[in-house]
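A.,

Following up on our hallway conversation. Structure tokens first:
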């Protein structure tokens, strides 16, 4: 039986090339994954800022509480002047019931009126305030 000789230099170079290919492919995958994730976070942030000067989030509170709550707002903004508070529940937009941040964001995207009737619930009392919205592109 003939003995085959193995060229150790060629084998080493081949393994190094395979390792380099694996490194490049995994780097490309993680860069793509990061870009996709960054886009998701940007979209979520845009939804949260769907109303001027107010940040909203989905509420996970049990007991029939509103599905969207105010989590932060500009201290000297329009919302503060209208008496909106952190923790207020958003129950409607222009009379349309709202139960999630996705629903609120979709409604606002498809109804670009300059003013919006914001239905709020605070301490078991519901009220409506008129909120001015900036023109698109501002």
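Then the amino acids I'd put at each of the 138 positions:
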């Amino acid at each position: 039986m003939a003995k085959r000789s193995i060229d150790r230099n060629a084998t080493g170079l081949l393994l190094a090339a395979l390792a380099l290919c694996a490194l490049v492919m995994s780097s490309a995958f993680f860069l793509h994954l990061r870009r996709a994730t960054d886009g998701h976070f940007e979209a979520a942030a845009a939804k949260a800022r769907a109303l001027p000067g107010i940040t909203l989030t989905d509420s996970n509170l049990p007991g029939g509480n509103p599905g969207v709550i105010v989590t932060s707002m500009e201290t000297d903004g329009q919302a503060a002047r209208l008496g909106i508070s952190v923790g207020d529940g958003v129950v409607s937009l222009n009379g349309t019931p709202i139960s999630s941040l996705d629903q609120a964001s979709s409604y606002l995207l498809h109804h670009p009126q300059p003013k919006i009737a914001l239905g709020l619930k605070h301490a078991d009392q519901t009220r409506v305030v008129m909120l001015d919205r900036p023109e698109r592109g501002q």
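The radius of gyration is 27 Å. Curious whether your intuition agrees with the design.

B.
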